[in-house]
Amino acid sequence: MTVTLTSTTTSDDVVRTPSARGPVAPSRGTLQPLRLDQVAVTGGPWGRRQDVNADATLAHVEHWLEREGWLGNFDATAAGASGADRAGREFADSETYKLLEAMAWEHGRTGDAELDARLQAIVARVAAAQAPDGYLSTAFGRPGTPDRWTDLEWGHELYCLGHLFQAGVARARTAGPDLLLQVCTRAADLVCDVFGPGGIESVCGHPEIEPALVELYRVTGERRYLEQARLFLERRGHQVLSEIEFGRSYFQDDEPIRDAEVLRGHAVRATYLSSGAVDLAVETGDDELLAAVVRQWDATVARRTYLTGGMGSRHQDEAFGEDFVLPPDRAYSETCAGIGSVQLAWRLLLAQGDPRYADLIERTLYNVVDAGPSASGTAFFYTNTLHQRVLGTVPDPDQAVPRAASSLRAPWFAVSCCPTNVARTFASLQTLLATTDDEGVQVHQYAPATLTADLPGDRRMAVRVVTDYPRSGRVEVVVDEAPGTPVTLTLRVPSWAVGATLSDGGTTSPVAPGSAAVTRVFAAGDVVRLDLPVAPRFTVADGRIDAVRGTVAVERGPQVLCVESVDLPGRVHVDELVVDTSQPPVEVDGEVQVQGWLRPHADAAWPYGTPGEPAPAASTPTQPVRLAPYADWAERGPTTMRVFLPAASTTAPATTTPQEA
Fold it and tell me: Is 533 in contact with 497 (CB distance < 8 Å)?
């Protein structure tokens, strides 16, 4: 498909105007997402995150892409310069494309003209680097670089193009087709020529182009792109890539996706591939493929997912571990894997409507995605450990660091996929809040927001969500506009919210975890209120997770909490703390506290004994210990931290002073 543009964004074969649809726009499914112009976050934690993303993160990312030479790679390619001294890793192009996607969603959200000008300037540099036949890469296919398509295992050529296509989709949906979409369709046409029937019968080592091709099909109507996504998905798992040291499961080429029982291998690759599979299944009506992904998601959530929603417990290959191998101190839990998990769960939610998918989205957003960037939006975690044993050092604000080397958030990484992924996620975050179907509106994530839904029969429903969630559990949905016919308003009740109540028309009723629905004729001014019990609570892990047996975690509402050494007497190491589980966590003046004591800090001749031996006496009396949201950890400088806390149900007061760690 070739798109020829005019000043009025008209192509030679189709006239399209901005659809205002979000990153995922399925043609069918149980639920449909609201358009960008139908939903807006108006405050609360997610409103602040969107503001910081717009005001600081986008410019920060653009600065580092320029500084590190990753944007300059496109200029050098356009000029025909040798790529022998090209800057960055082989996948560095993708960071520019993710920035463009973030800018497109942000421009669509706010209409910021200055941002739009910056976006178009970058697009012009990217377009200038595209070869006449549509090929686009600064790492391959030019003097001083390897030939095209010669390293499908590690080269990331198709992966980078996938992110390009998603940027083009974002731009087309928010501003109409322009130069960026033209660049995308030319590159996609080439991919179909090269990897289509009779072409190279292989796949990219890093899935990403699969969901991107489906979304590009949804924007352009070009069926060829959907078919190419199908080919890539069906080929994978048939050993089309070369064997590598991590094994074929690393890039999901060990078994066909229809046969797999659980997500495995590189966590980001796995979630991106499964997202593409859901997209394909929905568009083609392939119930078998959809059922396979659901089966794998179920097993992964039950056996291979951290309390935070994080995925990936192995550092050497950024991969899932075996079932129940979830050590907190070795959690890789990459920010990008959390974002991939959100993308996958959102697609499954749209396809099937089950609120458990929204539960995982909420958990992952609050405890992985929100933990990634600093409050300032200019420093980032790449990995998200659940147990920090050493204080670490403050990263140099003017230097990029290795991807997983920093125990504090760093301004940039040699592999900086996470900052750009965070940027595009927060720029489009409002699209995850609510959906619609023929019967009404479903609210999945709670934040101050305005929502409008177009229902069948030219009916319209407009509501405001009023809440300070998760600080409190009260969520009010205020009706601003309603048709004169029955509408169903559905509110998600999180899985942890045992004891929730729903109030409507003067009647309050208990509601169980899952969904609470009200069906009636609404009028402007009506209020439906959901009260969720967000009081802090102890959580214990499945006994098969050996690494955290004998410990407890504390959660409050959707947030996982942690203890940091900066909050302990004398800043002792967090590993000295034992929590008294006979006394439940409480909230005092807005702070969550548990009762605990500090172990004696003394060298032992031998750290083992026989069952039944008395435990050493505590070295301090039981005292309140402050906990903080895990997502905020390390905002106050170097600290030790842990989520799962050694637990006991007895106390042994003493008066000795603990030594500092």
Answer: yes
Give pLDDT tens digits for 34-59: 999 999 999 999 999 999 999 999 99
Question: CB count, 10 Å around CB of 117?
Answer: 10
Express each pLDDT in 325-356 by its tens digit: 999 999 999 999 999 999 999 999 999 999 99
- Please tell me the distance from the alpha carbon of residue 195 to that of residue 550, in angstroms, as a whole number: 52
At residue 276, the pLDDT reads: 98
DSSP 72-135: HHHHHHHTT--STT--S-TTTHHHHHHHHHHHHHHHHHH--HHHHHHHHHHHHHHHHTS-TTS-
Helix, strand, or coil (residue 561)? strand
- For residues 379-384, give the mean pLDDT: 96
Computed from CA positions of residues 98, 132, 203, 139, in that sequence, does the dihedral angle turn out positive or negative? negative
- Domain regions of the chain by residue span: 32-387+395-432, 434-531, 538-648
- Looking at CATH, the fold of the domain delimited by 32-387+395-432 is given as Glycosyltransferase (1.50.10)
Residue 8 amino acid letter: T
Residue (of 245, 274, 244) closest to 262 by Cα position: 274
Whether the pTM exceeds 0.85: the reply is yes
Q: How far apart are CA 227 and CA 169, in angstroms?
A: 18
> Residue with structure tokens 């976006």?
119
Quick one: pLDDT at residue 10?
Answer: 32
* CATH no., domain 434-531: 2.60.40
Amino acid at the residue 143: P
Pairing of strands 387-388, 641-642: antiparallel
